[in-house]
């Protein structure tokens, strides 16, 4: 399985490297207020890909923290339920205590 994974990564790298070599043209990125920046197309594509990746991860952060908090709360609840269950089982398996006998 590891060798298949490595082969896929090599093929993907070669394909993306070929894409980069074919798209080495200089393009101009126009910003607001008349500012423009010429750069190779492949660098701009890579920069926006990385920016999109980080924005996607940043958008997921609150959801991940909420799920972690929920998991922690559920683990605590589960521990309490298990403790109550063990206590109930222990009480059910113990012999009943005899009533006190008074000497009168």
Task: Give the count of helical stretches.
Answer: 2
The count of strands amounts to 2
| Distance linking N and C termini | 84 Å
Structural class comes to mainly alpha
Biggest β-sheet description = 2 strands, antiparallel
- The helicity comes to over 70%
Shape call:
elongated
How do the strands of the widest beta sheet line up side by side? 1-2
Query: What is the radius of gyration computed over CA atoms, rounded to a whole number of angstroms?
Result: 32 Å
Poorly predicted runs of 5 or more residues = none
Strand composition percent: 5-15%
Order of helices and strands: HEEH
Average pLDDT level = 88
Give a written overview of the molecule.
By secondary structure, this protein is mainly α. 71% of the residues lie in helices and 10% in strands. It contains 2 helices and 2 strands. It has helices spanning 2-22, 41-93, and strands at residues 26-30, 36-40. The chain has a two-stranded antiparallel ribbon with strand order 1-2. The longest helix is centred in the middle third of the chain and has 53 residues, at 41-93. The radius of gyration is 32 Å and the shape is elongated.
């Amino acid at each position: 399985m590891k060798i298949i994974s490595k082969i896929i990564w090599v093929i993907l790298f070669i394909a993306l490297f070929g894409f980069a070599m074919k798209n080495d043209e200089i393009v101009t990125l126009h910003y607001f207020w008349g500012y423009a920046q010429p750069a190779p197309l492949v660098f701009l594509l890579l920069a926006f890909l990385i920016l999109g990746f980080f924005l996607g991860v940043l958008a997921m952060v609150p959801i991940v923290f909420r799920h972690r908090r929920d998991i922690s709360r559920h683990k605590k609840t589960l521990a309490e339920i298990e403790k109550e269950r063990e206590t109930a089982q222990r009480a059910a398996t113990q012999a009943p205590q005899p009533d006190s006998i008074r000497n009168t």
